[in-house]
Each structure stands twice: as structure tokens, then as C-alpha cells.
């Protein structure tokens, strides 16, 4: 990408800078709110998804409420407490989805539209945007000029060009969340976070599930300890997990979708009533006129930016999923705010992802922050890890759910944490203590010597720090 860091400060019209924001998700709204706080005006141009973008409409909000619905149904019939009999059935799947949609509509209104409505100088425009120059956007036949432009158009599901898939028909996460009837069976193409969250959710509602993953493991960027354990938990729930799959073709026979694939050199056929393509995401950059305006894209079509979120075109910034990893709603909002500050104030503040926490909302959840041991050693850190199985966490024992473990990674020379990986029910709730310890250099010994309430899952973090030097099995309760 060419150097674009010598862009002059934004010009003003009647003393007010104007930023044009293409996109309507968290990055766009964070930028507009910050622009208003800085005394600038903002025009948000939105297309495709309703206001709120992926997260509130077809991502975080609908998926997590449906995951909780499926979990409530599953746990009613699958618990480990003696003397308690309970059952559950999905009596009306359409009602489950209606309740989900009510929440989506509520949050779209309360957290997006109602937030910007009272802000002076913020305008919303619905329509397809196209850059006609580095400072002008055309939408609905109108040309809107800005002192700065922010591209925050997000991503959409990527569907691989598998022969026959388009003719056979398929679901994406967007259309899956809109079903009013529960599929009898489902083949999920993919084995990363969207695929796994959706697969377990649908299986718990009662759909027969098969996961076909191209790599040799699900979540191939994570350690075998995590992926092997999670695979085993999925199979215990009746989910068929097949890895090392080369999908060759898809067709429909007798009302069923048939996937023909090579697995370990052998041809296999998989059938189901529906197919879910969860094979990644692609940037929403086509048709925007970006390259004609001098905005460079990377090899995968994402907008190329520097660490200050400037693109190759003077005065044009980009933020959120459209610039690629990390693709989280909270990082998109962070980038939108930062881009607005840099654009309007003429700053060159760089984005900082030190100790960035992330979560995969399977059950048990996969959560992480910082480096794993292999990554730490690759960076030249004299790292060691300590793993605490949840069988040693009193809270997990009392809840009779000891699936998973907590792994901490520290720099032996400094006694500082550099990362963590967690596989645990509600494992996401453990992340922030660890993330703050990494960010602010809190020593393992300082965590070990601090109070953690007994019979909390958070006590597991303290126990994991003790595991660096002691045998946890040899300690009493509330060990110090």
C-alpha cells in the first residue's frame, strides 16, 4: 500500500468538518458518534442489511439468543443431578425465532437508531453508495462530498464454488436464523467458529447434524488439546464430525441434498435435508468504486489500511470487518472511533490490539487472549504453560460439569502472563482478569496471592497460577 500518512487535516465548511461513512454497522455508528462529539457532521450511507449491520441483524445477537434457547432445551434433558427428572420439547420453532427477531428489532432501535437520532449533524441515508472520487460518494442520484470518507461496509458470507451447490440450494448464517421450521437434518460445510456455533445450536434443537471440515481438525489454528476435546464433546451429543474432507460436488436426490466428498482418499456421500455453508466471510467491497478512487484492496479483496486506518487514497479511511482480521463487533467499534478521531483531528494514532480477548460460543466455550505456548516460543519468549482441568475447580464440581480446562502461558523470566486458552462452560467470563493482567503487566505471583471467592469459576484462574509450581491435587480447598 502506498504511503498516505501525509494527508492534511480535514477542511471545514462553515467551521464544521464533514465525514461520509459508508456502512451501517458498529464501526459506522461508533465513527458517527465520535464525529458528533468532536463537533463534526456525519452522513451514514447504509445498504444490504438493515441498520446495525451483521452483529445485531444476522450475527452476534440472533446467534447468541438462539444458542441460549437451544441450551435451555438441551440442559432440561441432560443434567447430572440425582433425583431430578425433567424433559423438554421444541413445541413451536417459529415462536423461538419470533422471540429472537423481537430482540433484534429492539436492540437495532435502542442501540443504533435511538442513539444517533438526537445527535446534531448526523444524517442517515439508505441506498447503494459508490465512490466517484476520494472525497465524493454518489447515492440515489445524489452526490455527497466529505472532508473525509470512511469505508465500513463489513462482510458477507463466503460460499465456495463447489459444483452443484448453487443449484442444490444452501443456507448461510443469515438465512439459517430466519427459518420457521426446524430442519430434519443439516450438513454444515466448515469447521470454524460460525460453523461450530450453528451446528451445536441446531443439533440441540433436534436436527441431525454432520460437520464436514476441510482441515484435519476443527478450529485448525488452535491447539489439538482444545480441538480434540471439543470434537469429543460434539460427538457425545450425537454430532457427526468429519475432518480432512475434500468436497467434490453437491446435488439433490429425492428431496435430499447429497454431498460427495473424498475423505482419507475414499469417496463418501453425505445426505441431509439442508446444507449450511459456513466457510468464511468475504468483504463487501465490490461495486463501491473503491479502486477507481485510488483505494487499494489486498489479495482477498479486503480494504488495505495502515495501523492508523488510512487507506491508500488521501482522506479515505476504513474500519471494521471490511479491513479483515480481527473481525469482532467490539474491534469494529474501536476502529470506527479511532478512524474518526484520526480523520477529523488529523492524528496518526495507531490501533493497539495488545491482549485482545476472543470467544467461540460453543458449549463448552472456547476462549483465548494473547499467545499460546507455541506462539510465544516462536516469538522468542522463554514460555511455559500450566493447565488446570476443571475437575480441580470447586465451582465446576458443584455444578457437576467439569468439561474442559484452563491453560495459562507465562514468560518465565518476567513471571508475566503472555496468553491463555480456556475450554469451559462460561469460559468467556474468565477472560478479562487475564486480559488485564497481560495488558498491565500483573505478575503471576500477584494473581496467585490475591483473593478469589470460593466456589466461583474465576477461582480457577488463581488455581491455574498455582499450578505453575504446585500439584493442585495435593492442596486443600481455598489453597493459597
Fourth-level CATH superfamily of the largest domain: FAD/NAD(P)-binding domain
For the record, the count of structural domains works out to: 3
The largest pleated sheet is described as: 5 strands, parallel
Query: DSSP strand (E) fraction?
Result: 15-25%
Instruction: Please state the second-level CATH architecture of the largest domain.
Output: 3-Layer(bba) Sandwich
Tell me the distance between the termini: 53 Å
Low-confidence stretches: 1-13
Shape: globular
Q: How much helicity do the residues have?
A: 25-40%
CATH class of the largest domain, named Alpha Beta
**Would you tell me which CATH topology of the largest domain applies?**
FAD/NAD(P)-binding domain
Number of beta-strand segments: 22
- For the biggest β-sheet, the strand order reads 3-2-1-7-17
Could you tell me the mean pLDDT?
95
Count of DSSP H/I helices: 14
Structural class: alpha/beta
**What is the C-alpha radius of gyration, as a whole number of Å?**
24 Å
